[in-house]
Predict the structure.
Amino acid sequence: MARNIGVHTVVTGFSIKFVGMETMDLAQREKTFEDKIKSGIKIEPKDWMPDRYRKQLIRMMSQHAHSEIVGMLPEGNWITRAPSLSRKLTLLAKVQDEAGHGLYIYSATETLGIDRLEMISQLHTGKAKYSSIFNYPTTNWADIGTIGWLVDGAAIVNQTALAKCSYGPYSRAMIRICKEENFHNKQGYQLLAHMMEGTKQQRDMAQDSLNRWWWPSLMMFGPSDKDSPNSAELMRWKVKMHSNDFLRQRFIDRTVPQAEAIGLRIPDPKLRWNEETQHYDWGEIDWDEFYTVIKGNGPCNRQRMQARVDADVRGRWVRKAAEAYAKKHMN
Ligand code: BYC
C-alpha cells in the first residue's frame, strides 16, 4: 500500500508520512533478511531478498548446473570404450547422475525467477561460464578414474560447504548431490588403485593422467582469494561458507595421502608436509592458463560448446513431441 502512494510525496504531508513507512518497510525487510542469514535460517524462494543476492545466486547456481551438463562430455567420450561391462555400467550410471545433478540445480535456480531456456541460452552464447575443468580432453582410460577421484573429489569439498549455504533450495540440492559424488569419487579412486596394481604400462597411464589433471583440478576452486571479486559478498551472505584458497588447501590435504597410498606421485616438486601449519605446502598454479581457459580459449572450449549447441538443435523435435503429447493429454 505504501508503495502505491509513494509517488505523491512532494504534494502533501500525508504522503510524506507514507514514504517514510515505505523506506522503513524496505529497511525492515533488509533487517529480517540479514537477521536470518546471521542466525542460520535458510532463505526460501518466496522470502524477500536483495536483488544482488538473487543475481549472485543465479550466476553461481546456473554456472554450477551448466558444469554438471558440460561435465558429462569428457567422461561420455569413454562409454563406448570402457574395458569391461561392469566399468561401462558404472560409467553410464555416473554420467547419468551428472545429468540429474544438472537438472536438479536448474530447477533450484528457477526458484529465483529465471527461466531454464534463458539459462541455457546464456551458456550457448558464452554469457554464462561453466567449470574450467571440463575444457580438458580425456585422452586415456585412466582419465575416467582421475576425474572421479580428483574432479568429483574437489566437487565434494566445495559442495559439502555449499550444503550449508543460506539459500534453501541450493543447500538441499547439495546434500543429495554430495551423496552421489561420494560414489563417483570412490569408483574413480578404485579404478586408479586397480590400475596401479597392474602392468607398468597401466601404472604409467595412471601417472600420466594425474600429471595432466592435478593442476586443472586445483583451478576448480577459482582464483586465489586476493583475486576473487565475488567471494567477500558471497561469504557475507553465507552463500560461500569458505574462501577459494581455504577449500583448495582442504582438498590438497585430503588428496595427497590418497595418492601416496596407491603409489602415485603428485606432479608438484614443491609439495611437502608442513609440521608447523599441519598442512601441505605446495607450488604455484599457472593463473595465465586458468584465465585463458575461463575466457573460452582452453584446449576443448569450442568443442564442448559445439557439442551442447548441436545436442540442443538435435533435441528440438523431442521437446516439440513432448509438448504436443502434454497438450493432447491436458484436454
Ligand atoms: N571455472 O570471484 P570468483 C562436477 C569465475 S561439476 C570457470 O572466485 P565465485 C562434475 C567465476 O565464475 C561441479 N570459471 O567467483 C560434473 C567468476 O566469473 P563471473 C562444479 C570460474 O563465484 C561432471 C570469476 O571467475 N562445481 O562436480 O565467488 C562430472 C571470478 O571468480 C572458475 C561448481 O560449479 C572455474 N573453476 O567462486 C564430474 C561449484 N572459478 O561469473 C564432476 C559452484 C572461478 O563473475 N561454484 N570462475 O564472470 C562455486 O563454488 C564458485 O562459483 C566458484 C567461483 C568457487 C567456482
About this structure: Confidence is low (pLDDT under 50) at residues 1-21. DSSP finds 14 helices and two strands in the chain. Residues 59-60, 63-64, 67-68, 71, 98, 129, 131-132, 147, 151-152, 155, 158, 219-223, 228-231, 234, 240, 244, 294 surround benzoyl coenzyme A (CB under 6 Å). The longest strand covers residues 272-274.
